[in-house]
């Protein structure tokens, strides 16, 4: 019998921390996180000599390989106990947003408060690619900032499995393209908090996670380059829990702080206060 998969929502209401304090307990993930979680001895230790399947197969039977493997397993165990964060510069003014785009492809800026819905509507991605299939965006995924190998897409992303997003119709290149959608994260806040975020525009959205494994994610995307739909299957770093924080490092203030966990059981979603 297939198990029912549910989200567990956890509200953080413990003693409030400053954003600087929260981030001081986390690390920024690097491209090394991918071979660590995948237990890829050759990539992590840069064993470039073993450049064919046969060389790798023979080496994997040696005692030297076992030493490398055991060492990497210890590194992975330590990594899974650590917290990391990626962020979105979602509220930046237009000129600051353009600068951010040059430095980081995975941004979205100049978001304003939605007075009808009482919160911020953040577009995290689309099921589209522009300029080549390597520019596709996996679902519920955010980019690891220092990953520059864009042709090897899997190492660039972390799959935040519990991310509470919804899909909405996307007007792709100014027109409706059937099946193309935005992946939207809605963050509810009071008008007072929304005003504080809008007035300064220096807050960011931080996604804090601990790696929980690897997962093969299958998804469809529309490539504008040749006006064709593709199906992709990528091995991504996975996190079953994510803590979403809106904070301003300039003032150290926190405006939003909630955690979401992905549950593999049929239990009802848990809410903690």
Structure in words:
With 273 residues, the chain is of the alpha+beta class. The chain has 2 domains: 6-27 and 83-263, no CATH class; 29-81, no CATH class. It has 7 helices and 14 strands. The chain has helices at residues 19-24, 33-38, 41-44, 53-59, 63-79, 94-103, 191-200, and strands spanning 6-11, 84-88, 113-114, 119-126, 128-129, 141-143, 157-160, 165-172, 175-188, 204-209, 213-223, 228-239, 241-248, 253-263. The strands form 3 sheets. It has a 5-stranded antiparallel β-sheet with strand order 1-14-13-10-2. The longest helix has 17 residues, at 63-79. The two termini are 33 Å apart.
List keywords for this structure.
five-stranded mixed β-sheet; 37% strand; 2 domains; 7 helices; five-stranded antiparallel β-sheet; 273 residues; alpha+beta; disordered C terminus; single chain
Set down the secondary structure blueprint.
Layout: E1 6-11, H1 19-24, H2 33-38, H3 41-44, H4 53-59, H5 63-79, E2 84-88, H6 94-103, E3 113-114, E4 119-126, E5 128-129, E6 141-143, E7 157-160, E8 165-172, E9 175-188, H7 191-200, E10 204-209, E11 213-223, E12 228-239, E13 241-248, E14 253-263
Parallel strand pairs: 5-11, 7-12
Antiparallel strand pairs: 1-14, 2-10, 3-4, 4-9, 6-7, 8-9, 10-13, 11-12, 13-14
